[in-house]
Design goal:
Blueprint (H helix, E strand, L loop, with lengths): L9 E2 L27 E2 L31 E5 L9 H18 L8 H6 L2 H16 L2 E16 L5 E8 L3 E5 L5 E2 L8 E10 L5 E10 L8
Parallel strand pairs: 1-2, 3-4
Antiparallel strand pairs: 4-5, 4-6, 5-8, 6-7, 8-9
Organism: Planotetraspora mira
Protein name: Lipoprotein
Keywords: Signal
Amino acid sequence: MNRSSLPIAVALALSGGMLLTACGGGGSDDGDKIQPPATTAAAPTTTAATPSPTPSQAGGPGAPTFDLPSDITADFKGFDSGPKNKAVLQDASYAAKAVLELEARTNTKVTPNFARFFTGERGAAYADSLISQGKDGNVITGTYHYYKPVVKSVAGGNLSVRYCEDQRKAYAKNAKTGKVNVTTPSLSDFRLWTLLMTKSSTGEWQVFDHTWVKGAKQCEVA
């Protein structure tokens, strides 16, 4: 039961400090999703300025608030474990919610939260693809589970955050009619994400590139 696909498929390398993960192949429900075009990853030479923080919420002073419709639920497990990686995991969860927020409505421009947690050319291209998806009348609905996060160091003092996503109760919805395209659960509902994150001048971790694998067996849960 999949919603429309979230990311632009990119190639990254994890050799000599670079990260390489291939985008997953198709599935029987591919027609229910939007597949953005592939791009080639490149780490930013500078970190883009971070927009002013949105009003705080329970996460503490300066934490973002997200304008998610009532029919969308984001559930994170393991993203608050241990003080060592607490900051980057928290910002990774904010980045995931920023994507949901942008996909939840038919936006004509990037949201402040997306601009806050995504940076560089890849962030801009990703935003364009999600906005274009909304123009086609497709938004998202349902429940999104994120789990099994793993943090690793990569080149230039950056970090990679790899985690799983369960989309079995996540669907595409027509923004005008409200009709939900309910699909049958399958292995393709399980996604393996990798975010490459760099620290901004304000101390937040921003995504400068990402990749996902559809049908990730290692993410499958009962």
